[in-house]
Amino acid sequence: MSELRELYQEVILEHSKHPRNYRVLDSANHHAEGFNPLCGDHFTIYADVKDGTIRDVSFQGTGCAISKASASMMTQSLKGKSEAEAEELFTRFHQLVTGRGASADAVGKLAVFAGVSEFPLRVKCATLAWHALRAALRGDKEAVSTE
Amino acid sequence: MSTVVKSPRRISATPPVRVLDVERVRQDFPVLQQKVHGKSLVYLDNAATTQKPIAVIDAIENYYRRDNSNIHRGVHALSERATNQYEKARVAAQRFLNARESREIIFVRGTTEAINLVAQTFGRQQVSSGDEVLITAMEHHSNIVPWQLLCEEKGAKLCVAPINDRGELLLDEFEKLLSPKTKIAAVTHLSNALGTVNPVREMVRLAHARQIPVLVDGAQAAPRMSVDVQDLDVDFYAISGHKMYAPTGIGVLYGKSKLLEAMPPYQGGGDMIASVSFEKTVYNRLPYKFEAGTPNIADTIGLGAAIEYLEKLGLEGIERHEHDLLAYASRKVETIPGVAIIGTAGAKAGVLSFTIDGIHPHDIGTILDREGIAVRTGHHCAQPVMERFGIPATARASFGLYNTREDVDALVAGIHKVVEVMG
Q1: N or C: lower Cβ tally within 10 Å for chain A?
Q2: Helices (H), B137-283
Q3: pLDDT tens digits for B270-313?
Q4: Is position B185 within any domain?
């Protein structure tokens, strides 16, 4: 039960029920879709980027509590960051959820996702929005897939 | 080596149904005797794959320990033993499906390969530009995509017979879609996502009245009800070993010999030929025409053992047991607040798909797993079915012959736990 509580922390459940920045971003000049064909999770990430800075970011779509909360908290943590900082944060976040070293302090509020590392099958849920964001920043035309 | 064994239609006056002794049967499945996350395993993912009884595991092990050899070619003792067991499995499959002749049993990797085989041989031969292939809205991807590929290649149209909100086929709509352009209808016997049992015999009758052959995907039905291909009068019937307590990588395509004879081969290679020269190859007779190359001998023998095991227990008893479990589970699950059962057909078997308000099936699956309960979550390789019900996914409990009411009680307690954790 404690591992489950670690995974489904209050903050995560709250974000999954009331996701932040859950809208189409009218000013977006980047967007991309992320898709997990195994479970059907599907998100679109919108980003407004100018001179390498993410001025605003939002998302829409459907998914499990982990993927939705991750998308929601990602959008919160990226506003005002540079593209390079976003990439760096993703690297640390990925290390955190796969249990490969990154300390929880290195990812700020995203530390609540540390529990994911005990559930390897759920890493894809936690990182789906991030993969889509990366695709959006790169300007990929194809939806990114976790498979 | 290929004696054609013929069997009569089954006589309807069957002996009384043998009651399944579940507690004893459970001892036959070593995998069930384990704990997962500290809890006794409750395996409710049988529609994905079933566990294997000792009889099957032993059959495979004995083959590799004692009889391993190539079949249909050696004159030595091992090859003779291997060939005999391989062909004995064919006769077992013939008996299991009540096929008229053993040469109507083609060994393939599974249902998916069986359907692809028919699409790529019979389909390519019979379907032309402007023709139609009819399926239903409750098909699994394996009974959609092979036909899509065929229709794309030929410029034919894939038609889909609709279902109602309970997940039942609209038989009159199905009938309306059987047109002079329809070259084949491909339908599931038992829906893997909804549990609906289709009125296959009636569907075949409607199709045959218009000279349209019917392929039936029997992957889910074969382990759950006795199937009689002569009584159903189906033209093709596809099953997967691993869903009926046999190994993965082996399945059966049943086809009426008249149709199989007229079909071109599927793959070329050894065993499927009578003679080969660079100018001309003469294909082997049935069933070998469709079994190119060294087959999956060990798992075929494993399939034979699984069929003997099921025959020993009695399919009618299994069917009755699972029917009782499904009814019990449906009653219990539907009373939990916020839970909706997806697929409420009048004729149902083996499968209980459900959603919980505001909780994604993926999260349901993770929490149940921590309770030692294995269910499938997702779209069950039936995305069009999910779309029909306006949901991205469901959680699915599916029953096997070794499941008990205690398993259902554990599931119900698990669902309550899910609601508690997810608040």
Answers
A1: C
A2: 145-154, 171-177, 200-208, 229-232, 257-262
A3: 888 888 888 888 899 999 999 999 999 999 999 999 999 999 99
A4: yes
